[in-house]
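Help! Submission page says 'invalid entity' but I think these are all valid:
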Amino acid sequence: MNKNIAVIKGDGIGPEIIEQAQLVLDKIAIKYGHRFNYTDVDMGGVAIDKWGEPLPDNMLDLCIKSDSVLLGAVGGNKWNTLPGHMRPEKGLLKLRAGMEAYSNNRPAKIWKQLASASPLRKEIVERGIDFIIVRELTGGVYFGEHKTETQNGIRYASDLLIYSEKEIERICRIGFETAKRRRKKLCSVEKSNVLDSSRLWKKVVHEIAEEYPDIELTDMLVDNCAMQIVKDPSQFDVIVTENMFGDILSDEASMITGSIGMIPSSSLGNGTNGVYEPIHGSAPDIAGMDIANPIGTILSAAMMLKYSFGLEEEAECIEKAVSDYLDAGYRTADIMPHHENEKKSCTLVSCSKCGTLISEFIV
Ligand code: NAD
């Protein structure tokens, strides 16, 4: 298979972690006889410095025309004082909108080797944590009209939460399709006891459910869901929800699995061209030190193989290599255990060593 991958290294630790993911992809290409062609794309602070804007149109074009996009992270203190439209993160929003990537998928999975890193009690973790949050990404309150005004000397602010049934339908379909490939359980999360947009959401998701008789659909209010994620995460397989609820719940879900450096994500639209990136930011505090954990990026590359290129076996091969690496006791600083006893059976490795070791576990 011959695939063109747009690579956005970005800022901070971005270039370091992407380098490791490319090392792993290259090893997969050799093992399975594929060819991955990389095109570097400037986005974020690096693009502001070079081109005067966070994602120039010609760079976005390279992403749209590629088979998929692999992204490190963008942002940093250097660009924090720029006006809103010039911030590195605007590049991200332009990329998602330009690629019509309306569905963000984030797995929350605990690696058995890192179970002690979870802040949850051991008996809860032992029941298993392995679910995906499918979050709507281009609608809802983040994209509605934002207004601040003063009337009779009093300041008012409002943000419009609007969803069309079409927007709800397409994201819920992704939820059902994802559940179909997993344990066939879909939990739709909303706030239908208060919000009209949620009542429409609930109606639409039940209408679509008739087309998926083998998927078990449940409804849950978002406040209850926030509670259930820490009380008994093993009950979830796939959660589908709107933009803001998904933003908040997916951060909560990432926390219970232990480390932000381990979690990948994908953003997809109707086609197969998506954006794959770790969920963390550019970590300016550790940039250039070769100590970042590249596994979230490596697993994002695995998701790209699976969801954009249909290479399931190759994706599983990467996941197994990560598991073997953890079994062998290798740890970057962020996932090093705190207890002296556990520490003794682990070896501290750098970001680059981590990438090299994982690629060596691909045989
Ligand atoms: P962050 O995720 O960059 O860092 C939070 C903490 O986690 C830091 O202590 C960092 O050192 C640590 N960390 C993050 N990734 C790690 C990894 N792979 N290995 C080891 N430790 C890791 O969040 P932040 O500090 O709030 O934001 C830094 C910059 O990143 C900001 O400019 C922010 O806007 C940007 N950001 C970008 C994205 C993105 O590109 N998708 C997402 C979130 C934040």
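Support: the input was valid. A stray whitespace character was the problem, and the output above is from the cleaned input. Residues 1-99+273-363 form a domain with the Isopropylmalate Dehydrogenase fold (CATH 3.40.718.10).
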